[in-house]
Amino acid sequence: MTGHRPRPWAVCALTATVAVLCTAPATAHGEETLPEVRPRVETPALYDDEAGGNADADDPAIWRNAADPDRSLVVATAKEGGLRVYDLDARLVQSIPAPAAPGPDDAPGRFNNVDLVHGLKLSTGRADVAVTTDRGSDRLRVYRIDPSRPGRPLTDVTDPAAAPPVFSTGQDEINEQRTAYGLATWTDRATGRSYALVSRRERTTVALLELTPTASGGVGYRTVRTLDLPSSFRLPDGTSWSPCAEPGELPQVEGMVVDPANGTLYAGQEDVGIWRMRADLTGTPRLVDTVREYGVPAVYDEATEECAAGADPGYGGARLSADVEGLTLLQESDGDGLLLASSQGDDTFAAYDREIDEDNEYEGGFRVTGASPSLDGSEECDGAAVLAAPLGSRFPNGLLVVQDGHDAPGDGDRAATNFKFVDLAEVTTALDD
């Protein structure tokens, strides 16, 4: 780890609900030279077209088989393509379709993010489960992980009678798709209760949902509370700034992760930065780093459907380029660890110290680059997952899985995505150099 660095910001606005840190003008916005790590294997390409089942890789989670680490699994979302389950050689083990649309004019199921809960209490006993946000239906879906079924390890245990829309009041509102989006799970060590933290598409809302066992042996959930992050920010020069977006859209959160040691939630507001807050959504959220584009004025052009940016006033951070995506926590056995974030705008990853007492200081960054002409790196990464535990002979040092938004070599004009598997030792070595 590196030594202490001066923080480039100070609190400039404080309310009862949020502490917004305004960055001072950065000394440099040029890209630093970052070390490179290379994947060992990659999953088969997914294609977001009719022939490919509208499958689009998004977010992974790593499940460790404690009894046989070589048979550990990676569970990943494929949006309208549902869920994919891979072994440690990145071979497909199971494909689970997203639910069909309830009606001809309704939105189909669309699995956006996924996370795991270990030892969730069910009426039939404890089990490891994968939880995913179904953005298409504004619901959570829960899948039991059963290693005794190697060909079909995931089974849907969602209780439909106890799984209402998270944010919507009915199907018409669901069809507008301001629905369940980002996801992180959390088990409160003090109570043993398990939760899902869920963000809302095109809104700043984060909801805390308690996962509850039902008499049928399934899983439901109930909303405990919600929190709205800011959509507008006061800059050091006294002006107000909001990220540019299509009319009616607010700066959404997607990438999220909870540090189980202290119940801290880290949430990536895509065009703003990384927030730190209590996972129970009480207290005051704190913005610990911002994207380079923070504070840059921009106007949405309806003709081009793009934002035309003005001059950069220099209030943004120096480590992240919008969007902030793919937050994941590297937990080391001695209690140390790192928060990793995908800087989607420049195809890099940033690492921050896990310690709140050290204000989550920046510890370095890296790129995931190609290992061969047939095994490329990661571009425009949406989701990532890391596990610092031995995973058999294939990944004895642990594993980092990252989404690749542009898998190459492609198949003509078809948009291809997939997931790259990286030996964690390469990552830790790169960050220690």
Question: Secondary structure elements and their pairing?
Answer:
Blueprint: E1 9-14, E2 19-23, E3 36-37, E4 41-42, E5 46-47, E6 60-63, E7 73-77, E8 83-86, E9 92-96, E10 111-122, E11 125-134, E12 139-145, E13 154-156, H1 171-175, E14 180-187, E15 194-200, E16 205-213, E17 219-228, E18 233-234, E19 240-241, E20 253-259, E21 264-269, E22 273-278, E23 286-290, E24 298-301, E25 306-309, E26 324-331, E27 337-343, E28 348-353, E29 362-368, E30 384-387, E31 399-404, E32 416-423, H2 424-432
Parallel strand pairs: 3-29
Antiparallel strand pairs: 1-2, 4-32, 5-32, 6-7, 7-8, 8-9, 10-11, 11-12, 12-13, 14-15, 15-16, 16-17, 18-19, 20-21, 21-22, 22-23, 24-25, 26-27, 27-28, 28-29, 30-31, 31-32
Polypeptide structure, described:
- The protein has 433 residues and is mainly beta.
- It has helices spanning 171-175, 424-432; strands at residues 9-14, 19-23, 36-37, 41-42, 46-47, 60-63, 73-77, 83-86, 92-96, 111-122, 125-134, 139-145, 154-156, 180-187, 194-200, 205-213, 219-228, 233-234, 240-241, 253-259, 264-269, 273-278, 286-290, 298-301, 306-309, 324-331, 337-343, 348-353, 362-368, 384-387, 399-404, 416-423.
- Strand 22 and strand 23 (286-290) form a beta hairpin.
- Mean pLDDT is 93; it is low at 1-16 and 22-30.
Principal-axis shape: globular
Q: What low-confidence regions span 5 or more consecutive residues with pLDDT below 50? A: 1-16, 22-30
Strand order of the largest sheet: 3-29-28-27-26
State the end-to-end distance: 9 Å
Mean pLDDT: 93
Rg:
21 Å
**DSSP strand content:** 35-45%
Structural class by SSE content: mainly beta
Number of helices: 2
Q: Percent of residues in helical segments?
A: under 10%
